[in-house]
Amino acid sequence: MQRKLNHVLIKRISNDNYEDGEWKADPGYLSTYFVDGPLLCTIWQDSADSEILGENWEIVSIKNGVMKATALRVRADGSTYTATFELTKVN
To answer: Could you tell me if 55 and 33 are in contact, meaning their C-beta atoms sit under 8 angstroms apart?
Structure first.
């Protein structure tokens, strides 16, 4: 059985791209985000020659235009921690 993925168009925006009171889209070469069940999946590439990277985040809530997600991460020493991620809807 095939599952249909819910693709979401999201422009990558970072704190480095805030100019003149407006957010600017990240100039990354590739940036794809999609939702698959409870997961927010991210894939990006900074340039045509760079490595394609990706992460999966578990969506915790979507409320008042803010999606909150968490993911288990591993530190260099092998210990783990929970990272948090928030996306805010902008027009």
So the answer is: no
